[in-house]
Design a protein that fits this description.
The protein is of the alpha+beta class and about 425 residues long. It has twelve helices and eleven strands. It has two domains: about 30-300, Transposase Inhibitor Protein From Tn5, Chain A, domain 1 (Alpha-Beta Complex); about 345-420, no CATH class. α8 (about 290-300) crosses α9 (about 315-335), α10 (about 350-365) packs across α11 and α11 packs across α12. The chain is globular. The relative contact order is 0.13. The structure holds manganese (II) ion. Manganese (II) ion binds near residues 59, 60 and 157.
Amino acid sequence: MVGRQSVCLRRLAGGARSGIVGFSRFLANRKVTSEALIEGWAQGLSAACAGRHILAIQDTSELNFATTGKHDRGLGPIGKGVGRGVLLHPMLAVDAGTGGLLGLVTGRVWTRDGIVATPHAARPLSQKESERWVSTPQAAKAHLAEASMVTEISDREADIYAKWARVPGPVFHVLTRAMHDRKIAEGGGKLSSAPLMAGGTATVELRAQPGRPARDAQLAIRYGPVTLKRPDNTAETDLPKRLAVSLVEVVETGAPEGVQPILWRLLTTHAVADAATAWRIVAWYQMRWTIEQFFRTLKQQGLQLEDSQLESAERLIKLTAIAAKAAAVIMQLVQARDGRSGQSAEIAFTPAEIDALAALIPQLEGKTELQKNPHPPRSLAWAAWAIAKLGGWDGYPKSKPPGPITFRHGLQHFRSIAQGWTLRDV
Ligand SMILES: [Mn+2]
């Protein structure tokens, strides 16, 4: 999938009938479960995380697959019930220092059975879909045990009292945007009226999002400790009545006309004692962008997973679990261009492909030192340099770094070369 930038079985098999049959049988095999495939996501991750501060970013994305009234492929509803498809809830491990993607940690892939009739508040958390926001970081702890510190990061949907109560540990922190104007013990009794310290202003670059073009925003920051109160309507009456956390609030001043000004209330278990720490919390939260980029790599900007023609929900779920790993590797390949990741080319290429790269690189290098591949042989950065060159990048360190499209072209080109390489002794 990484090499061919596709999830189409026919393309993955290079048109070979035996390959298509083999892939189909693999996906149909009952012993191949999505749980087992997801277990494989974290292979090698523990060592990559050792001694680092890991941002463990989780989010859900809906994959919309085409269905008709007669033929629903066994898929349940998604979104507001209009389409049908699969839900993917992954957690990514990102190095807090470099922003590098270290890999997928854990998560789940599922389709809905139908509409649940019991009102949301009346059900215990274990019977709600939102349970994933709590169980995913819990399951991640075993994979991230070697990290020096972990910060779980998630958007407003994950602001669940049970998560604040159950997930944090001595070196396991939580950072989530507040969904509601929560009840607190201080000040006016609400997050919006919490007594906070002013921490100055700064210009922060906001990345583009669906419905929001990129812009520089003037943000004012305030921060302070708050004590969350257990919601009155919770079914989880065993949870502590109060929890001490920190609140970091950023407000946009002077937003352009017609633009919704930024107002983020970030809750975290990190102690926030000064303005510099408060800004660091904002910067970590902004790294959530990595998971949005991951979903784009899986969908329209990369693997085109939603175009899959597989017939059954069960197979689409397994395909999604495999494609998620491939999307993570594609992102790692793109990031490896700066050479800081220290990862091996083996995470993206087979030994035969690595041999083909090694044979190819002297031809891609120019005569001057500046035009040589500067990375350690057989590292992911070394491979990324070659793939980017094949995709049309000029290779000069001062040039604009290659982007995902250049890598896609380079991988397509490399695919043909690697196939030729296997024929060299025929
Ligand atoms: Mn979300």
